[in-house]
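Saturday, quiet lab. Running sequence design on the structure tokens for the scaffold JK sent over.
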């Protein structure tokens, strides 16, 4: 997989992949009114202008993506997605490693996922993330917030 900074022309493909990936999350939580499924191209463009969006491609096809931005000394990571056909092959880890490297000057990394997202929680914990809070969003969804301190000695 080749990982590069996404360009504006990639946004439609990333948005389409995002909706396919988050449909699984919505089914898991039985909640379909979630921002990743409701996002439109204008909102994607805002993300593009305010965050770093990485894309992972194989043979020219975008099969994964992740976003990050820095606020103070924290890198906030979001929307890690990998095409269902390519999951459990290390591509999510590669995207996470890449976004962390892009924000290597940060003291910590933070992200969140749904409490029923066991595959996500397993990956993040394997990458060194630790839960630090939970936030109940609705009757059906509770977010688990995880953080990882940047070991700058890498």
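Result came back. Writing it out in full:
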């Amino acid at each position: 997989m080749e990982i590069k900074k996404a360009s504006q022309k990639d946004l439609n493909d990333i948005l389409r992949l995002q909706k396919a990936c988050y449909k699984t999350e919505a089914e898991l939580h039985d909640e379909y009114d979630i921002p990743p499924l409701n996002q439109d191209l204008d909102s994607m463009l805002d993300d593009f202008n305010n965050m770093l969006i990485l894309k992972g491609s194989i043979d020219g096809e975008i099969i994964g993506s992740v976003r990050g931005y820095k606020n103070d000394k924290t890198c906030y990571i979001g929307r890690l997605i990998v095409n269902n056909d390519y999951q459990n092959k290390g591509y999510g880890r590669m995207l996470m490693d890449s976004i962390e490297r892009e924000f290597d000057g940060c003291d910590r990394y933070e992200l969140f996922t749904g409490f029923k997202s066991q595959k996500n929680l397993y990956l993040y914990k394997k990458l060194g993330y630790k839960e630090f809070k939970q936030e109940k969003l609705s009757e059906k969804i509770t977010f688990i917030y995880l953080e990882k301190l940047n070991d700058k000695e890498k």
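Notes for JK: Strands lie at 2-5, 52-58, 61-71, 74-82, 108-114, 130-136, 142-149. The mean pLDDT is 94. Ask whether to fix the surface positions before the next round.
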